[in-house]
Amino acid sequence: MNFKPIIIAGPCSAETEKQVLATAKELSEMGVSIFRAGVWKPRTKPSDFQGAGEESLAWLKRVQREFGMKTAVEVANTQHVALALNAGVDILWIGARTTTNPFAVQEIADALQGYDVPILVKNPVTPDVELWLGAVERLQNAGIKQITAIHRGFGVGDAFYRNNPQWHVPIEFRRRMPEIPMLCDPSHIAGEKSLVAKVAQQAMQLNYNGLMLEVHCCPSEALSDVNQQITPKELVELLQNLVINQTNSKTEILSQLRRRIDDLDSSLIEILAQRMKISQEIGDYKKKNSIAVLQSDRYNEILQQCINQAISKNLNPDFIKKIFETIHEESIKTQFER
Ligand code: PEP
Ligand code: MN
């Protein structure tokens, strides 16, 4: 089966109606069907361009109507959520700075309760996988079904990248939540247009489900993230050169999980063999010293301990009881045979 990555592309910010429509037109002509644009921008300094705001939501409506594209917008508070949903934006995303703040994520999740809108969750600024997973859980608890994660790198980056990719963090995220699709945002990792393709390729090698890229009709005139935006033509070239693994990521994730299950099963057998060996030694000792095989108090104590541990690990106590009854039965049997 041929795997096609999900592509979301568009400018860092919606700046003018002309810029939005010119960029969307070129992107739609090359087959991109999801248009991103920041309406409210989380800029570090108040003197930086803060986004065109509410007014630009009408421009995105034109993108939907005239080019048949879906639109995606960043929301950082409940007011943004209400305005974006009212304006018919198709997809919302939670930016890195917002994912860092659980109060903000919870408020957004509460505001989304009852809406069936796809949400993209960027990684938090810090390489804290729990915070990222926690943000997804807050949305899941609010009943949101279509959640996708976006890896956009961490912190202030190093000499090479604007935001350090720290690939192990999204890998751990996928290990913990394999059902959540993962996109890469190579633009914010790279911070520099010449590095965008390289990061995009690395994401494909890790079987990401797709990419969110910053594309501007005239990057040198961009009002935000001027160094990392590419032209629609450069995007065509990037996508043409992208080497895509022909296994779909679901299969790869499944086989990774299966390998881990196989390892754990092998450890279970190893531990059971060790346990049975000790049980035989106990059987020998009991026989030599004329001690009864069945010690009910000891058995009850073991069973209770295991059940308590099972409960603390969220395992079904009946399931654990059944397993330990079977183990104990086998243990007694081998002791009788000594
Ligand atoms: C953006 O996508 O333009 C943006 C602000 O991203 P991030 O939250 O990753 O910094
Ligand atoms: Mn940006």
Oligomeric assembly = single chain
Q: How far apart are the termini?
A: 57 Å
CATH class of the largest domain: Alpha Beta
According to CATH, the fold-level topology of the largest domain is TIM Barrel
Average pLDDT: 93
Tell me the fraction of residues in β-strands, as a range. 5-15%
Shape: elongated
Can you count the beta strands? 8
Strand and helix order: EHEHEHEHHEHEHEHHEHHHH
Radius of gyration, rounded?
A: 27 Å
SSE-based structural type: alpha/beta
Strand order of the biggest β-sheet: 1-2-3-4-5-6-7-8
Low-confidence stretches: none
Structure description:
- With 338 residues, this protein is an alpha/beta fold.
- The protein has two domains: 6-246, Aldolase class I (TIM Barrel, Alpha-Beta Barrel); 251-336, Chorismate Mutase Domain, subunit A, CATH 1.20.59.10.
- Helices cover 52% and strands 10% of the residues.
- The chain is built from 13 helices and eight strands.
- An eight-stranded parallel β-barrel has the order 1-2-3-4-5-6-7-8, surrounded by five helices.
- Strand 5, helix 6 (129-141) and strand 6 (147-151) form a beta-alpha-beta unit.
- Helix 6 (129-141) packs parallel to helix 7 (168-176).
- The chain is elongated and about 95 Å long.
- The chain starts with 5 loop residues before the first strand and ends with a helix.
- 34% of the residues are buried.
- The model has no long low-confidence stretch (mean pLDDT 93).
- Bound molecules: phosphoenolpyruvate (PEP) and manganese (II) ion.
- Residues 12, 38, 42, 95-97, 122, 152, 188 line the site of phosphoenolpyruvate.
